[in-house]
Amino acid sequence: MGTYARQDIVFVRGEGCWLTAETGERYLDFGSGVAVNSLGHAHPQLVAALKAQAEKLWHTSNLYRVEGQETVADKLTRLTFAEQVFFCNSGAEACEGAIKVARRYHYVSGDPNRQRIIAFRGAFHGRTLATLAAAGNEKYLEGFGPTAEGFDHVDLGDLEALEAAIGPETAAIMLEPIQGEGGVRAVSPEFLRAVRELCDKHGLLLVLDEVQTGMGRTGKLFAHEWAGITPDVMAIAKGFGGGFPVGAVLATAKAAKGMTPGTHGSTFGGNPLAMAVASTVLDVISEPGFLEAVQLKTLRLKQGLEGLRDQHAELVEEVRGAGLLMGLKLKAHVAPPQVVKAANEEELLIVGAGDNSVRVLPPLIATEDEIGEGLRALSRALTRVARETSR
Ligand SMILES: *Cc1c(COP(=O)(O)O)cnc(C)c1O
Which reactions does this protein catalyse (predicted)? Predict the structure, then answer.
């Protein structure tokens, strides 16, 4: 179906931060398949894990215990706030699952009327009908019939409006620590802490969507760690499988208490292939020094982008984001596809985003040299755009 406005490039091979097109051209991948290829392409440990599992067992369904799920859940519960994990296949499913966990919690707590969820304008939680309703983006809802009930929306960062929106039917507050698709709009640590406090004060669950910000993307395993808070429920996907489709809903035991046999499920969720890869991704990212190295590279990228903003002040309004989830908000007369296209012409891949911005998302394994190379390519791309826009 014609659902995508695709670039006319076909990639046939990937290695580390590099992708080779069928034409033989090599591109530096600073999009990471939209924050998915966290460990780059063809990471030897991931390839080995998938190959080994492929020869043993692919799928059994969730009618039986799945060893890989127990292993990955063990690692996730050791590394995070979570005590319970549900495995699925995508970010939208993880968000949808998180919404179900939050509503069900109040239902089994004797508060069945508490089912509304407060979310934020500019958010993105996926393309299922409920997650579209959660984000409330009119553009994505148009023409798809009745909008799923039970979501209220406030402006990102507006604490007063948030508290005012809380009512007797509110079950949870749901947000991304950095709005990725929405234009790399970060939530301040103070705001995140204030949201946590509001949840505690009103008996609400805090649901974080770390589908894009998680798995080391910001230099911590999960972005909320920077604020020193923990959520009650969290959706993850994207970088979790390093390119293999897998997602998960993480929760405290308390928040997940309503998720009893039969309340939720997935045929493919957490199948042995996905678990073999996700387990290895977690091992690599949680190796001592890995995230510290990401934090160092982050500095290089941020400084470089700030340099580009100064150099191209007529095109770039501001540098946004954290870690290796960075963005450039463009001036109103510059359109993100122009910059993406100019970058492609410099054999650099970056990704467009909302709020007139572009995202720069190198794989977490990018070297300082590769980051330098990407910055130089982006600088040349901006020079191209400057030439075009002044014509
Ligand atoms: C990409 C994304 C999703 C949706 O993930 P899919 O795997 O495309 O369903 C949800 N939330 C956030 C924050 C995302 O970035």
Answer: N(2)-acetyl-L-ornithine + 2-oxoglutarate = N-acetyl-L-glutamate 5-semialdehyde + L-glutamate
Give domain 11-30+289-389's CATH superfamily: Aspartate Aminotransferase, domain 1 (3.90.1150.10)
Give the closest residue (by CA) to ligand 1 atom 10.
125
| pLDDT, position 172 | 98
Phi, psi of 222, deg, nearest 5: -130, 145
Share of the chain above pLDDT 90, in %: 99
**With respect to CATH, is domain 46-285 assigned 3.40.640.10?**
yes
Q: Is there an atom of ligand 1 within 6 Å of 338 CB?
A: no
Q: Which helix (H) or strand (E) holds 178?
A: strand 178-179
* Whether the predicted model's global pTM rises above the 0.85 cut: yes
Average pLDDT over residues 317-337: 97
User: Domain-by-domain residue ranges, the chain?
Assistant: 11-30+289-389, 46-285
Which residues are marked as active site? Answer: 124, 209, 238
Classify each residue of 375-391 as buried b or exposed e, where b means 16 or more C-beta atoms within 10 Å of its C-beta. bebbbebbebbbeeeee
Residue 206 CA to residue 199 CA, distance in Å, equals 6
Strand 233-236 relative to strand 205-209, pairing: parallel
